[in-house]
Amino acid sequence: MPIIKLENISRSYKNGQVVIEALKNINLSIEEGEFISIMGPSGSGKSTMLNIIGCLDKPSSGTYEIAGKRVEKLGDGQLAEIRNEFIGFVFQSFHLLPDLTALENVELPLIYRGLIGKERRKKAVEALKSLGLGERIYHRPSQLSGGEQQRVAIARAIVGDPKVILADEPTGALDSKTSETIMEIFQELNNERGITIVQVTHEKSIAEYSKRIYHLLDGKIERIEDLA
Ligand SMILES: Nc1ncnc2c1ncn2[C@@H]1O[C@H](COP(=O)(O)OP(=O)(O)OP(=O)(O)O)[C@@H](O)[C@H]1O
Ligand SMILES: [Mg+2]
Asked: N or C: which end of the chain has fewer CB within 10 A?
């Protein structure tokens, strides 16, 4: 059973009289443990697709199943639960809260889960250490480099043991050396923890860390490229 299954997914936006079809009849199945990339020109629908996969947005039509559950049948509370327990998000601009330390940022998803302080801290410290940030736990985002901030964001994404990581241009704001480090972390999370990874990227060299590339064009899957 695929962990993510989109069937005939369309998403249109209406602005006044203009309707933009951001996604047109997308069919996509992702098995647990896959590492895939989504590529395509600006405006081709990559973020729209990732947001639907992450239950941050709803399709206009079609069906979406995550781990066998029909998403359109879930209420807001259940959707929030799936996002919190099942999915870790990583963004181009990190999305860390500036007034919180690295540790507090990583603890956040566990607060929503109702974990008590001590347990929470232990897990967050472990996650930060696993990303080589043991010496940075009391730093605020402004006191960290871009690569370190993205590693904090990855620690936050994995602290709750998600099945899936969704990353929208995770290396878009980083230099090539730092980008490599982030991709090596993704490969390790995929190989060693079996986390399913779906990333959006503009760069072929970044997509090549994954095992399959979905090329989007004008809201459609134009081509699927399998990498050896
Ligand atoms: N909230 C919205 N309201 C109206 N149109 C939108 C909205 N969000 C996206 N769109 C349109 O949908 C299309 C797909 O947008 P999307 O953000 O998915 O593109 P993208 O492939 O992620 O592009 P980029 O590489 O620039 O990030 C675009 O034409 C965009 O203008
Ligand atoms: Mg985008």
From this structure: C
Q: Which two tokens stand for residue 112?
A: 């929503």
Query: Which residues are 198's β-sheet partners?
Result: 36, 166
Tell me the best of 20, 91, 171 to mutate to test the pocket of ligand 1, counting ligand atoms within 8 Å of each CB and taking the most: 20
46, containing H or E segment: helix 46-53
Residues with CB under 5 A from ligand 2 (ion): 47
Could you report the per-residue pLDDT of 100-126, keeping only the tens digit for each? Answer: 999 999 999 999 888 999 999 999 999
For residue 1, the model assigns a pLDDT of 87
CB 112, CB 77: distance < 8 Å? no
Task: Write down the domain spans for the chain.
Answer: 34-58+84-226
What's the CA-to-centroid distance between 48 and ligand 1, angstroms? 6
